[in-house]
Specification:
mainly alpha
């Protein structure tokens, strides 16, 4: 009996440390980009293209991998209750990488030429959950605005 219980715990631990979980940060990033794109309830074609390109750049993945991640992200975002589901997986990222993600989210929000207040709210909440200072949140927004 105890061996059976120990075996179950071992399987759970092995599953959590398996290579399949290594791409979870990339999937979480794809989900956050999807949240931004969907925030205004109007996903334009240029946003779909930009979302893939930004994911490729931030996560350094191929177009095929980005498409697969975004396909998974669409479903996960529909089933998710909050941004915490995704940001909790990214807290271990370095601070520069978290800042880069916030910047990428602003870049995506600017794609259609207008930042919807709901897009702003998603990015703001993500920055808070990732412990990115408000001043850096604003700096990222301005740096993207200046390049567009």
């Amino acid at each position: 009996m105890l061996n059976a219980i120990a075996s179950i715990f071992k399987e759970l631990i092995d599953a959590q440390s398996s290579p399949a979980n290594e791409d979870q940060p990339d999937l979480a990033i794809a989900c956050l980009l999807t949240e931004v794109a969907n925030a205004d309830h109007n996903v334009a074609e240029e946003e779909t293209i930009a979302r893939r390109q930004i994911l490729q750049k931030v996560c350094q993945v191929s177009e095929t991998t980005a498409d697969a991640l975004l396909h998974q992200a669409d479903q996960l975002v529909r089933d998710s209750a909050s941004l915490y589901d995704f940001t909790s997986q990214l807290r271990s990222l370095s601070h520069p990488k978290r800042y880069e993600l916030i910047q990428a989210m602003w870049e995506l929000a600017h794609t259609d030429g207008y930042i919807d207040p709901l897009e702003d709210a998603v990015i703001r909440k993500t920055a808070e959950l990732l412990y990115v200072d408000h001043s850096e949140f604003i700096r990222a927004k301005i740096s993207v605005s200046d390049h567009i």
